[in-house]
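task queued by scheduler; priority normal; single chain, no ligands, no partner chains; default sampling; output format set to structure tokens
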Amino acid sequence: MDVSTKNRSEILIQALPYIQKYYNKIVVVKFGGNAMSGVEQKKKVMSDLVLLSLVGLKVVLVHGGGPEITEMLTRLGKASEFVDGLRVTDEESAQVALMVLAGRVNKELVGLIGNIGGKAVGLSGIDGAMIASSMLDPKLGYVGSIDSVNPQLIHDLLDAGYMPVISSIGYDSEGNTYNINADTAAAEIAAALSAESLILMTDTPGILMDKDDPSSLIREITRSGALGLIESGIVDGGMIPKAKCCINAVEKGVERVFIIDGRVDHAILIELLTDEGIGTMFMK
């Protein structure tokens, strides 16, 4: 699309009040799933996050990597099973998740940010005793429930001008590691940081009244409205933990919570810095 000089200036002027609103505020972004497919799309998203950092936002990136975990498990001859959108994780699969998330995926994102000119540090929930966890449900195996989040290391990195890039791995006092749903991890981290916003970048436009019809996007939804859609079955599968973590973040004081389509170019800039927005916003 050819954008005239006048239109460019109008876009920048429209962004100004939003930049002022978010200046020096913490924004937690979750990036994962099929939204992360393809190096070019990752580069575009990381460029947007670096831009937000350069205009004064304190960006914290939390990521998953479900497709990458599935790929590695398949190579090892292990099938993947899901219950209500959560991966059933035995001890070996938990170690694979640690290797893939805290290793390959995390360092790729940190490298992309560095190559674009940003400053990032890769972490997992184990670093700095950040995410203390326990087993969510024995039938799911080593899937973690978050007991507490220690945000001190995140604050230290933000204050030093770095973007923390956090993989959704937790730990317990016995040395067990847990695969934690990245949406859940992002919501708990946002709450612990008293973040201004939580943005889940996923592979859907947001909450849909009809999952097969993108035009049925719900732009704003309350806690009770979201719970009603879950109970009615309109929100199902992998969208259930996403919606629940958004509800949880709102209840714990995060000011603005969004689900947006991370496959759309510059989706996060459209959501944060324009009047229109692009996804679903959760409200009390």
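post-processing summary
- The mean pLDDT is 91.
- The two ends are 38 Å apart (CA to CA).
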